[in-house]
Each structure stands twice: as structure tokens, then as C-alpha cells.
Amino acid sequence: MCGKVLQIRMAGRSTSAPAKSLKNSGGCGRRAVAGLTRFRSVIGVDIAPSATEQARAAGSDPHLSFRVLDLLDPEQAGALHEEIGDANVHVRGVLHQFPPAYRKMAVESLVWLLGRNGTLYLKELTSSSEAYLADMLNEFGPPLSLRRVMVELFPFNIKWGGLSDADFNELFSSERFIRVR
């Protein structure tokens, strides 16, 4: 399997669900906009100010906003939690990009954002994805949508990878988190 989808809640969670949803916007904000079909209010977040500006420029909805958020800054996540309260958080393809030493810090930010009642919807590449993607690239070459990224980023030793089962278990221990699926 090249990807893992998990639904995770904090242990000791109450039964009330937050109305807010946070989505890592991935630049243009498509995932944040899609979140409006399930949640009353969505905040798309990205570390890059240019990405949040691009997402804002793409369209507006009174229930959608975009913010800059660095997951490696738990204090910043705590300040956002103070402002909006508990939130459901959607993370897609983010944690595997951090070096292992930084992943726990990112999870601490997620804990702040979830609060007591939020649910984390996590979709990450697994450790088996690297070999699979390398085989696909060798056989078919990079897809058009990735060529620019690969030319600009991979020469700088930014590599893709994934999280192993041990990584998931360490980051989301059963003492602290409940895996819903």
C-alpha cells in the first residue's frame, strides 16, 4: 500500500463535534473549498504566504478563509486554537515531508488545533510509496503536473518518502489517540 488514511481522535474526547474545519490548502485551496460540502466553516492553511494569497484570489465564500500556519510552531497553532476553538483537521501529504526529528512538533501543533473535540483526518504516503513512485517514474517518466516541481525541488535533495507503521504508532500512540479507522 502506498498511502494510509486514518481518522484519529484524542483519547477522552467528548461527543460534541466542532463546527470549524482546518485543511492544509496545498497552494490553490481546492481542498479547503471542497471542505465546505461537509463543514459550515473552513480555514485553509499553508506555510507559504504566497499560497494563501493565491487561494484567496481564486474565489471567496463567507464561510471560507485562508491563513498562514507553520505546523512546526505549536505556539502559533495554540494561538489559532484560542481564536477558533476546537477544529476538525484535514492533513494530506504533509507529515512525511518533515525530517523525523520534526514530526513530533508538527503533531503537537495538530493536538492544539484539535483541542478536546476535533477529529484528525490524515492521509499520508507510506514507506512503500518511495519504491513504487520510483518504479513509475523510471517506466513512464514524471507526469506533466509534477515536472516543474521535480526539476525545481529534487536537485536540492528534497526527497519524497513515507511514514512506516512504526512512525504512525510513535506519532499517534494509542495512549493519547484513538484511531477511528
Could you walk me through the main structural features you see in this protein, from its secondary elements to its overall organization?
This protein is an alpha/beta fold and 181 residues long. The chain has one domain (3-10, 17-127, 160-174): Rossmann fold (3-Layer(aba) Sandwich). It is built from seven helices and seven strands; from the N terminus they run ββαβαβαβαβαααβ. A seven-stranded mixed beta sheet has the order 4-3-2-5-6-1-7, sandwiched between helices. Strand 5, helix 4 and strand 6 form a beta-alpha-beta unit. The relative contact order is 0.21.
Defining key terms:
single chain; 181 residues; Rossmann fold; 7 helices; 39% helix; globular
What does this entry show, briefly?
With 181 residues, the protein is of the alpha/beta class.
Total strands: the figure is 7
The CATH homologous superfamily = Vaccinia Virus protein VP39
| Number of domain units | 1
Mean pLDDT, nearest integer? 81
Overall radius of gyration: 17 Å
CATH level 1 name: Alpha Beta
What proportion strand?
A: 15-25%
The CATH topology turns out to be Rossmann fold
Uncertain residue segments: none
Order of helices and strands: EEHEHEHEHEHHHE
CATH architecture: 3-Layer(aba) Sandwich
Query: What is the approximate shape?
Result: globular
Number of helices: 7
What is the terminal-to-terminal distance?
Answer: 16 Å
Strand arrangement, largest sheet?
Answer: 4-3-2-5-6-1-7
Largest sheet geometry: 7 strands, mixed
Helices and strands: which structural class?
A: alpha/beta
Helix-residue proportion: 25-40%
